[in-house]
Amino acid sequence: MPSRKFADGEVVMGRWPGSVLYYEVQVTSYDDVAHLYTVKYKDGTELALKESDIRSQSSFKHRKSQSSSSSPSRRSSSRSRSRSRSPGRPAKGRRRSASQSREHKDDKKKAIQETSLALPVLALFKRSENNTKRYNGEPESTEKNDTSCVILEQKLKPDLEINRVLEQYSLRSRKDDKKKEDIYSVKKTFVAVKPIEKVPTKTKELEFGGRIGTFMLVFLLPATVLYLLLMCKQDDPSLLNFPPLPALESLWEGRVFGVFLLWFFLQAVFYLLPIGKVVEGLPLSSGRKLQYRINGFYAFILTAAAIGVLLYFQFELHYVYDHFMQLAVSATAFSLALSIYLYVRSLKAPEEELAPGGNSGYIIYDFFTGHELNPRIGSFDLKYFCELRPGLIGWVVINLAMLLAEMKIHNLSVPSLSMILVNSFQLLYVVDALWNEEAILTTMDITHDGFGFMLAFGDLVWVPFVYSLQAYYLVGHPTSITWPAAAAITVLNCIGYYIFRSANSQKNNFRRNPADPKLANLKFIPTATGKGLLVTGWWGFVRHPNYLGDIIMALAWSLPCGFNHILPYFYVIYFICLLVHREARDEHHCKQKYGLAWERYCQRVPYRIFPYIY
Fold first, then answer.
1. How would CATH label the architecture of 10-59?
2. What is the pLDDT of residues 46-66, one digit of tens each?
3. What predicted TM-score, i.e. pTM, was given to this entire model?
């Protein structure tokens, strides 16, 4: 990047974000790392702009129009004419007042033109503020609500109406009108600058340990799943009691792989059914919005009906427990094959369809993080489908299979209280995710991360086979708990769920319609693109209250397993690490996109996840 072009304190012309209009601003500082200028508008608004959005004032000097005054000879001859007046000519006093009135009209029209120039910017701010699909932006100087724009617009309407009448009944000559059009065309050549097309750049900041880290994770993640499942099968699942490795032929069975394929394609059929509403996602870098069919909850109902039919015909669902390890290996093999297909097809994808975080140019890194943002086969969105359907619904089916296996192995007429709690808590979580399916369209997984091995393995293997670890553990290690303990754990889970759901609902409702009267009590920090950062409610308590609720629920899911071993608490330990890492990623991306607004938000809300702790 070359050295900075504009100095601190220099007055320049800055482009308003999202428009083609330039306004006079003053450079206040420069960020050498992000290569952004912090500029200040006349109204006090501070934004961070790229150098390409700033121009010197000299480039906006308009061409001087040719003088319409008469030649000296004509002026002298006019002075030599007779000073006598015809009866129809006005008196001197009246002439002076008419001249003053013309000057007054010109001043008023000039003021109206200035206010009319502010209206497109005002309208732009209103449109972008009510647009729930934008993500982030740069800050304004003060907190606002939606009434200020309406009041200002109402104040400007009378002046604009006067201007319209003056233009319609103007007595100017056509020659003056033509000159005005020439001057206006000159202004347009300077103001209406054609926006520069955004060209996707290479990913420079590598996450997950870069090339070496992602290479190791490709092998470490499947090994972790295998280790956890083997530990649960042991009588003593202590960390120091390393399980013996099974024979390779016992890990694979063609019939089990066929069962997994049947499950995957059954969910694909449910996804393609023309039921449920169709919504638009966030705008892509090209401005295009993809459409998504919201029918995950219907797929869950159809799956429950199919399971009910199998149980009615006495299908042994504990088959899942008996072949749990083989199912995990089958899912791993399928996710690996899917990841290879996704990377190969991404090599032919247009630049604008590549993921912002998976376009590094390094094969292993892009393979892991995902090279293409939204890979689709026709209208079938592979990432969106895998995000909720096979793994999340499969998680509930696995839990049910573990419940039935516990009853069969231990000859129980009803499942244990611990198993009931685990199944109930996690069923509530999955149903909530499917019922609020539309909210996933604004998450980082959909908007930022590409679809590669990380998400494919996470959706198809990690979620169903690791998140069900507590139920799998209870089959081989039954744990009895008292009713008061069960009531306390239930209250803890309800608290976590309330924080999780109310925080997400507050955020999603604000994104969908910030002008909703029901949200009038919420304060926010405005941004240049119209998005607001909530500083009241749950989002004024900590920066990620939904993560806090998630962690509380994760703890409630593990407590029914007792305290004999740490293995069932792997999920809550892993989840804390995952959300702390994701919070760091969120922090990095939000600081880049929000800029100064995010710094102000962090000052208002200092705690990230845990209040008064972190």
1. Roll (2.30)
2. 788 888 888 887 777 554 444
3. 0.67
